[in-house]
Structure of Tetratricopeptide repeat protein:
Amino acid sequence: MSETTPPPGSSGPPGASGSRSPETHVIAFRAAEQLLAARDPRGAIRLLDPLIAAHPESGAARLLRARAFFASAQLRAAAREFEHILEREPDNAFAHFALARTHERSGRPERARKHFRLAAALDPKPEYVQAARFEN
């Protein structure tokens, strides 16, 4: 599943019993993306929590929620979510880069450097390579 592909549907709407269609999950995922883009990360998290409860294996939903945690300065939660993603996708350069930014913002430069370098090694995007500071 790609980082932008929403999870498949399941039963159990947020906070109530009943069934949810796959379309409902797609709508919730897309709405969460829009909320994050509109700088409402807490709103995005509220939409993503029940979706992830129904689909804990969804890398796309978890990555979006990790980004929302970061944007709302919930750095411990962001780090836990990025680490969860990396346990399943150790070659996810973006997750390494985002985890590095999270560590950097949390005042843990050595942990940040490790993940910046992993991100750059996995995907030599200029922003990843620059953040890795290989010359130091």
Observations:
- Residues 90-136 form one domain.
- Residues 74 and 124 are 28 Å apart (CA to CA).
- The two ends are 36 Å apart (CA to CA).
